[in-house]
Amino acid sequence: MSEPLYRKGDEVEVVRRGVIVEVDLTDPARFGIGRPGMWGANAYFRTDDDAIKHTLVTAAEWPPQPGDTWTDATGKDWLAHSTEDNGYGIALTSEFGARFEEADGLNTADQLYGPFRLKTLGKRRLERLERPC
Questions:
Q1: What's the CA gap between 40 and 24, in Å, rounded?
Q2: What is the DSSP letter of 70?
Q3: Which of 13, 52, 12, 50 is nearest to 33 (CA)?
Q4: How far apart are alpha carbons 59 and 115 in whole angstroms?
Q5: For labeling, which of 14, 32, 49, 109 is most exposed (least CB within 10 Å)?
Q6: For the segment 83-95, what is each residue's pLDDT rounded down to a tens digit?
Q7: Please, what sign has the CA dihedral across residues 84, 75, 56, 123?
């Protein structure tokens, strides 16, 4: 049998990445991560615990829909709109003039300027939310 890698008293850093599947409505600082579609979370954490580091990777609402307004990591606004070529693609244009189109471009924008947060819902997103399933 081999020796354990760690001993009692060792300080370690554990990184765990997952999707937030639960936010405690009675205690919003408490959230659970797990696999989407599965029942409940398999680990719970607190946003007010200094020993826990948490970083947004991708917003739940990603990718953008035309009419959405998104905010980048520095607080700058970006408008999601249809591309001029065919009207079906998606583009993101920032308040300072940067523009990214289609899926690859949107992912590049997120890598360079994100993580993005949805600021206001566009008409297309609102219409989809209002449709009965």
A1: 12
A2: E
A3: 52
A4: 7
A5: 14
A6: 876 667 899 999 9
A7: negative
